[in-house]
Write a structure and sequence with these properties.
homodimer; 3-stranded antiparallel beta sheet; 314 residues
């Protein structure tokens, strides 16, 4: 209850509801909302996370995909739906693979125009964005535009668990009907207390957010200087592009075995073929020495597997 | 990895795979196995837990219900299925609402006869049954008869998380294909270490199991002496029957507000109408004084809401 109050306050909502993970919160909340509103249509961003996709699939509600981060396409799709049907627009703020950020205001404008509810996944943003760590919607002053804000305690907050923040009525509704909420065990008290302490700290301390931004900028500058290609984006996620699934796995293996650096290879089907990558997310605790070591490792491995030549040739 | 090795050893299996909860382990493992084996039919006990039901539903595989704890009905159902199709029999050892225990050996015999795989949920049994806490299948020497044993770290082991124990190949298969495993965050290290310590302890210490059995027997005897009706069963679950949803909720509220005793009311749809109940599970740490206080509270509340007369009249 204390933790749910912290979370409701964080997102400027009446209430919050805790789940065992961010995955379960998306699956259970979307699965319940879309299933229980008769005739509901879910408008789902084409790059939504697996947990949202599974939740929508589980609801058996009609799903309409809209082009990634494209409010105009969303507008066209919504215009084709019977105005009398309940509609729910489900999207994310920071997308974890490309690190791009949704045009939240424009999407909310389009949703409002068509009387649609909005469901925003801020899993990769809570703690990291906004003056109190409320996410991108807080940073942009848009929290009141969202019907539901979903987040996790397992990333920036450093513990475990997921949640939704919304109206009392909506949280009570999900609490009463979501199988994935009712028939499972709650978070252990120590985890809940740790999460509450972490949220409270990040509501008043900006030092970690500023330091992370500095670390991200520095990593990007070092990658540029070394000629290692990475996706440009406005977030803290730095996707280093390899473009080959076998090489991607090999680079990851060498980094772990020879350098003790763990970076997951991200291959198809998580990302499209040809865009295989390593995903870096510098933390406030990464030192200059850590970055030096990473760059030495990366440039060595890049040369070793022949990626340097590729980059140069492109 | 260390924790997964403890779990594989606990159940006499080659491998184990961790999930964020018991619910997720059932949902993800059954959802993946049943979906990915072409033509698979799942034979599901009629009283299986919500997490198994949702997992089977999620797989979109054909589901055939068999009568609760009825190997003969299972035999008939299996006989009607094309022998060439993969078949998976999903059931529990201890059923949480009635506290009854499955005829595991007979169900495995029937499954073997028809070449079906077996999936046993030991969530309410791990830690509590078997010389090393491996569950009812361990207590009965049947662990090798099960294709998959599923359990939780959130009940007897006192932490959080769920798992399956099975062959290397099966665990790798689920690891590679289960969305609910891949796209979520792992258990925090402190939780995993706590669970491993708990499992290790209960592998060698029988004191807690013996003490719990004593507490359960004592509670049953006290309820009998007080004329408070409860379901007889061979497990540690003591369902105290109220038989009325409004009274059931009222008794639970009074116990919490006036006595500081928290017992959840269990009403329809979790149990059939007319069998509304309070579910007691005495722990090894409940003292004689705790039992005295509980019985004083129960007999007082029972008289207060008029349940004593009902019981006497029946």
């Amino acid at each position: 209850m204390l933790l749910e109050r912290e979370l409701a306050d964080l997102h400027g909502k009446e209430a919050a509801l805790l789940f065992t993970s961010g995955y379960v919160s998306n699956w259970a909340a979307l699965g319940t909302l879309a299933a229980k509103m008769p005739g509901c249509v879910v408008l789902s961003d084409a790059l939504n996370h697996a947990s949202m996709i599974e939740g929508i699939r589980h609801s058996r509600a009609e799903k309409v995909l809209f082009k990634h981060n494209d409010p105009e396409d969303l507008d066209r799709r919504l215009a084709e739906i019977d105005p009398g049907r309940p509609k729910l627009v489900a999207f994310e703020s920071v997308y974890s693979m490309d690190g791009d950020i949704a045009p939240i205001e424009e999407i909310c404008d389009v949703a409002d125009k068509h009387g649609a509810m909005t469901y925003l996944d801020e899993v990769h943003a809570v703690g990291l964005y906004g003056p109190r760590g409320g996410g991108v919607a807080e940073a942009r002053g848009l929290m009141d535009r969202l019907t539901v804000i979903e987040g996790t305690l397992g990333k920036a907050f450093g513990v475990m668990g997921g949640y939704i923040a919304a109206s009392h009525a909506l949280c009570d509704f999900v609490r009463s009907f979501a199988s994935g909420f009712i028939f499972t065990t709650a978070l252990p008290p120590a985890i809940a207390a740790g999460a509450a302490a972490s949220i409270r700290h990040l509501k008043v301390s900006d030092a970690e957010r500023l330091r992370q931004r500095d670390r991200v900028a520095r990593l990007r500058a070092r990658l540029d200087a070394a000629g290692i290609p990475h996706l440009d984006n406005p977030s803290h996620i730095v996707p280093v592009m390899v473009g080959d699934p076998v090489l991607c796995k090999r680079v990851s293996d060498i980094l772990l075995d020879a350098w003790g650096i763990y970076v997951q290879p991200i291959n198809y089907p998580t990302v499209p073929r040809g865009t295989e990558r390593l995903r870096f997310t510098p933390s406030p605790l990464h030192s200059d020495a850590d970055l030096d070591r990473l760059m030495t490792a990366l440039t060595t491995v890049w040369a070793e597997v022949g990626l340097m030549k590729r980059s140069a040739a492109e």
